[in-house]
Design a protein that fits this description.
The protein has 11 helices and 13 strands. By secondary structure, the chain is of the alpha/beta class. It has 2 domains: 169 residues, Peroxisomal Thiolase, Chain A, domain 1; 149 residues, Peroxisomal Thiolase, Chain A, domain 1 (3-Layer(aba) Sandwich), CATH 3.40.47. Strand 4, helix 4 and strand 5 form a beta-alpha-beta unit. Bound molecules: coenzyme A (COA).
Length: 326
């Protein structure tokens, strides 16, 4: 079975900055509350006419440039998103058209915040079997368009951004060592968008009652997040024959600084090994870890031979963890 290698990373962050001070003017909140309870200081928000595929395109171009490959070399495109351009067709097909590469496999993956790591893990199976050689995995989120800007419980947390990687069979350089994927539908009601699907189709009433916006039970998620992230990381490390002592750099999902600190503490990892971008970008769901990985690579925070742990948790409930030797 062939191992997989990340041969290029890219990301795109919208220009428009929304600070905690801006949010103070929109809902009953304060910079002090947001900073101490979440760690977020500011986040990026798209323009009115920007959609997930626009962000995905920009991140993909950068990842392909870094990988030194042309779109026509791609065998498959996976887009992880909970904010697709529309319910269907898949944003991955829209992206395929934008990239000017036709007829290759393209599909969306809807696993909330865990989508990017699910995507890499799925793609690596196609590489392992020899079915495909060059796969683009993109996480693109425009959460500002499903957040209720009147709900202070959620609107201070979520934001927009995209990150991408190109995966190829391992030859030289980094290699994916192991992964763990999981889900627990018992927690499905903890976070989601109730209306607009087949259970509660769009109607005047669903719009009036704001059911097309994200609803979240923050406290319930907090406890589950810490538990699930540690368990997923434990399993991925065990599979790779490693322990937390071997880990040089940890990229956790960026939901809340208190979740990240609790997770790192249980793992026995010092915070200088932990990648944080939520202070600048908030929670970008699947894109959070993707953007963090790209920035860490470009800033050379990750060095050849480093053992990297990436761990996510999100709606579904879902979780995923990946170990990479860089
Ligand atoms: N500004 C000011 N006050 C706020 C607020 C805001 N933006 N949002 C909530 N509050 C209030 C609440 O109304 C509550 O007030 P009350 O005690 O008068 O009812 C109080 O702050 C405490 O709320 P609580 O929910 O207990 O706060 P918390 O410390 O648990 O933090 C979250 C809330 C959402 C930040 C935190 O629970 C969290 O990050 N959860 C995980 C979220 C997550 O991972 N979501 C996505 C999955 S990827």
């Amino acid at each position: 079975m062939r191992k997989s290698s990340i041969v290029g990373t890219g990301s795109y962050i919208p220009k428009r900055v929304l600070t905690n001070a801006d949010l103070e003017k929109m809902v009953d909140t304060s910079d002090e509350w947001i900073t101490t309870r979440t760690g977020i200081k500011e986040r990026r928000i798209v323009d009115k006419d920007e959609a997930a595929s626009d962000l995905a395109y920009k991140a993909s171009i950068k990842a392909m440039e870094a990988a030194n490959i042309k779109p026509e070399e791609l065998d498959m495109i996976i887009v992880a998103t909970i904010t697709p351009d529309m319910i269907f067709p898949a944003t991955a097909c829209v992206l395929q058209e934008k990239l000017g590469v036709r007829k290759i496999a393209a599909f969306d993956l809807e696993v909330a915040c865990s989508g990017f790591l699910y995507g890499i893990s799925i793609a690596s199976q196609f590489i392992a079997t020899g079915m495909y050689d060059t796969i683009l995995i993109v996480a693109a989120e425009v959460l500002s368009k499903i957040v209720d800007w009147q709900d202070r419980n959620t609107c201070v947390l979520f934001a927009d951004g995209a990150g991408a990687v190109v995966l190829k069979p391992f030859e030289d350089g980094n290699q994916i060592i192991s992964s763990c994927l999981g889900a627990d539908g018992e927690g499905a009601d903890l976070v989601g968008v109730p209306a607009g699907g087949s259970r509660l189709p769009a109607s005047l009433e669903t719009v009036r009652s704001r059911q097309h916006y994200m609803k979240m039970n923050g406290n319930g998620l907090f406890k589950e997040a810490v538990k699930a992230m540690v368990q997923a990381a434990d399993i991925s490390l065990q599979k790779g024959g490693l322990t937390y002592k071997d880990i040089d750099f940890f990229i956790p999902h960026q939901a809340n600084i208190r979740i990240i600190k609790a997770v790192a503490k249980r793992m026995g990892l010092s915070m200088d090994k932990v990648c944080i971008n939520l202070d600048r970008y908030g929670n970008m769901s699947a894109a959070s870890v993707a953007v963090a990985l790209d920035e860490a690579v470009r800033e050379k925070r990750i060095k050849r031979g480093d053992k990297i742990l990436l761990t996510c948790f999100g709606g579904g409930l879902s979780w995923a963890s990946l170990v990479i030797e860089w």
